[in-house]
Amino acid sequence: MDLGLKGKTAIITGGSGGIGQGLVLEFAREGLNVVSASRDAATGERLAREAEEKGYEGKVLAVSTDVTDRASVDAMVAKCHEVFGPVDILINNAGGASEPAQFEDLTPASREFEIKLNIDGVVNCCQAVAEDMLSRKTGSIVNISSNSSLLGEAAASIVHYGSVKGFVNSFTKSLAWEWAKKGVRVNNICPGWIVPENEENVGGDSFWKRYGFDMMGTPDQMQSALEDGTLWNMSGLPIPKLGRPADIANLSLFLSSDLAGYITGQMISVSGGAYMH
Q: What are the angstrom distances between the C-alpha of 212 and each of 8, 90, 133, 190?
């Protein structure tokens, strides 16, 4: 199905992470020009080479970006203008938990990290693309939240992270309502466990490298544990398979397209049925 997105320009934050790499490559495969906005520019540059080597129609531009710093975000958008032109699509994918901990042991540093990355980062990026989208009365924003904002058990040992992602859920609805008549749609994806295809498909700052692989095992180990029914928090899923970055990318592409032109303010869990609404 042709989504009608070829030649459009998308900014994808957190482009070097596990989900982010899938987003960047699938959007480039679909023919979009993609800004991979991440502090890890080296991984973004590798993705640009990979997209070119695979013959994808879309180009990838890696721009070193700290979404918690509005000046850094504005500089990234300016670079996008210089190379690709105005922004059509924003995927607010950058986010993450500081480190697992019982709530009573949550540190001020962890709270600040999660607020800046998951709340300030989303707000900064939406404001930075506002002129492009509102002045042309067109645009799509997809915010990437988390199932930890929907299910208590999904926020085990990351209570505060689940809570700041709850802000993203509410923010999405409020902004969608305000900008709907101005031609801009805003939707929200809540991923469950999304597992990279292999250990190399994650950036240096990814939670997988910080503690995820140690806690859950490698992707191959997780697949084996899923098959023998011992994979924590996933073996009982209604859809008995691992979620992959492409699952988030496919829905993001649809929500970014005019095929979803009558959809805004919606939250969709991509989690194998772990959360049903």
A: 34, 27, 36, 18
Q: Which of 193, 186, 213, 206 is nearest to 147 (CA)?
A: 193
Q: Note whether 61 and 36 are within 8 A (CB).
A: yes
- Between CA 55 and CA 37 the distance in angstroms is 22
Among residues 161, 211, 262, 275, the one annotated as catalytic is 161
pLDDT in tens, 77-106: 999 999 999 999 999 999 999 989 999 999
Residue 124: in which H helix or E strand, if any?
helix 121-136
Whether 262 is catalytic is no
- Phi, psi for residue 90 in degrees, rounded to 5: -125, 125
Longest dimension (CA), the chain: 54
Which domains are seen in the chain, by residue range? 9-204+243-269 (3.40.50.720)
